[in-house]
C-alpha cells in the first residue's frame, strides 16, 4: 500500500503565568478558576473585586490560583492584574469547550465555562478547579435537547470540580442521572444532600459523603489511579448565613423561567438572563449568596489541592518519594 502521510499540527500555544508554571513544575498545589463567572455571571464592578477575592481565598489556604481565559486567541492559565481587568471589562465571548478552536484560530477574547476551563486546566497540569455552579440538563430538555457541555466534558476530563451543585433553574434530577450514566462520581462535602446553588438542599441525595480534605484527596487519587479518565464533582452547600430563603427563591425562579419563555431565550444565553433576574429582584441577596458560595468553594478547592499534594509527597504513597526512588515498582507476592 502507498505510504500516506498525515499532517502534523503544532501544539496550541497555551500560556501559563510564571507563577503557575513554576508551581506546576515544582508539584505545588494549584487551583483553576473560571472566567465566565467574572465576564458574564457578576455585574461590574463587583466582578473585578470578586476576581481578587477568589484568588485571595485560594492563596489563604496554601495554593496558587490559576484564573483561565482566552485573550488575543491565546489560552492563558493564570492571569495578571491587567488581564483580569480585561476579562471583567466586558465584551468577551462565552467559550465552552467546542468554542476554543474558533476563538484561538480567529484570535478572539473569551471567558471560559466549566467545560473549557476544565480542558485547559488539565492541559496545563492542574487537576483541581473551583467554580460556583455546574451546568446541567435544562428544564424541557426532552424537547429541546438543551444539555450543558459541562457534563460531557467532565466525563472526558480528569479534573475535580468543586462547586455548589447545579443552579435550581436546571433539571437537577436529570443532571444527576446524566452524571451517573457518564460515570462521574458526585461527592457531598459534609452533606448528604446535593446542593441547589442558592439553596443548600436541592431535594436530591449525593452519591457519597466526605467530611475532610484528606478524605476527598484519597477518593480523588483512587478514582484517578483506577483509570476512569473522568472527572469528579465535589458539591459544597452555600454557607448557611447566605442561603436564599425558600419563598423568595421559588418566586424568583418562577418569574425568571416565565421571563425566559417570554423572550424566547435558549441555550447558553439562559443562565446569564436568569442570574441577572435573580440579582435584580432579590434585593442583593442572590448576589451575596453567589459571591459567598464561590469564595467558599475556592477555599475548599485549595485545601483539597494541598491535601492531594501532601498525599503524593508521603513516603507511603505509591506516587511518593520512596516509590519514585524504586522506579515505582511494587512486589506482587
What does this structure look like?
The protein has 333 residues and is α/β, with parallel strands linked by helices. The chain has a single domain, classed as Indigoidine synthase domain (Indigoidine synthase fold). The protein is built from 14 helices and 13 strands. The strands form two sheets. Strands 1, 2, 3, 4, 5, 6, 7, 8, 9, 12 and 13 form an eleven-stranded mixed beta sheet that branches. β10 and β11 form a beta hairpin. The radius of gyration is 20 Å and the shape is globular. The C terminus is likely disordered.
Helicity, as a percent range: 40-55%
CATH fold label? Indigoidine synthase fold
CATH superfamily: Indigoidine synthase domain
What count of domains describes the coordinates?
A: 1
Q: N-to-C SSE series?
A: EHEHHEEHEHEHEHHEHEEEEHEHHHH
Compute the number of strand runs: 13
Tell me what portion of residues adopts beta-strand conformation: 15-25%
Mean pLDDT: 89
**Architecture per CATH nomenclature, i.e. the level-2 architecture:** 3-Layer(aba) Sandwich
- Which stretches are poorly predicted, pLDDT < 50 over at least 5 residues? 321-333
What is the C-level CATH assignment? Alpha Beta
The secondary-structure class comes to alpha/beta
**Biggest beta sheet attributes:** 11 strands, mixed
- General shape: globular
Q: How many helix segments?
A: 14
N-to-C CA distance? 48 Å
